[in-house]
Each structure stands twice: as C-alpha cells, then as structure tokens.
Amino acid sequence: MGEKHPHVLIIEDNALVARSLRLVLRAHSPILVDSLATLRGTLPTVPEGLVVLSDLGLGDGGADEVLALLSAERPDLLQRLFWMSGGGIMLDRYQDTIDKSGRPLVLKPVAPLQLRGIVEGALAEADAD
Fold first, then answer.
1. For 60-88, what is the HEC assignment?
2. Model confidence band, residue 19 (pLDDT cutoffs 50, 70, 90)
3. Is residue 67 part of a domain?
4. Domain that holds residue 31
5. Helix (H, G, I), strand (E, B) or coil at 31
C-alpha cells in the first residue's frame, strides 16, 4: 500500500496540541509544522488543495506573518485556511488579521468530531468546485 496523500497542513507550535490535532486528523495524513521558519521551507513541497489549520501565535511569528507568507508563496492555500486560537490575548492581537483574511476562526479546544467535520466539509467543498 502506498503513502496516503496529505489533505491537511497544521501550523502549531505547542507540541501537545500539535500531536492531538495530528492524531484526530490522522486519516487525512496531516503535515505538521511548528514554526514560521519551518512553514517557509515546507510550502514549496506541499500539494495543492490542503486544508490549513493555523494557530494565531507561533514562537517565531504570528497570524499576520502566516497570512503574508501564504499570500505571497501559496495563495491557493488561502481558500481553505482556518485560524485556531485558545482565545485571550492572541485573539485580541490578531483580530484584524483574521478579519482581513476573511477566513473563519476555530476556538480551541475543539472537539474531535467538530474538527473532522470542519476538515471534511472544506475538502468536500473543494471537490464540488
């Protein structure tokens, strides 16, 4: 059996949260990146059509840098971008970026079934296009 095609790109710097998201979404062969620097190096190799789940704050950047990088390097990925946040100061800091992107926010913690539903809904919507 060959390797499954990835359907999800997870941008999350908290190792425990990242492992949980990867486990919940394992059927979608997620690609996990833990920093803006890693994202920069990974973007040229990721396939089109991925659902992107991005935390608002990373150790080496935040939502505004993620949005700028995706816009410049991989605008095709913006159509299925979902921001993720536990709320609080990160949400306040990046509210303008969320609004500018026009993409939805998912509050953490998110129930596994809800997260799978978000990803599968975005993938089904892409297939319908």
1. CEEHHHHHHHHHHHCHHHHHHEEEEECCH
2. very high
3. yes
4. 8-122
5. strand
pTM (global) more than 0.85: yes
Angle at alpha carbon of residue 26, lines to 28 and 45, rounded to 5°: 55
Sole residue written with tokens 């599968």: 120
Question: What would the pLDDT profile of 37-82 be if each residue is shown by its tens digit?
Answer: 999 999 999 999 999 999 999 999 999 999 999 999 999 999 999 9
Count of alpha carbons within 13 angstroms of residue 35, beta-carbon side: 5
Whether 70 is covered by a domain: the verdict is yes
* Domain CATH number, residue 35: 3.40.50.2300
Q: Which long-range contacts (CB under 8 A, 24 or more apart) does 20-28 make?
A: 21/53, 21/115, 24/112, 24/115, 24/116, 25/115, 25/116, 25/119, 27/116, 28/119, 28/123
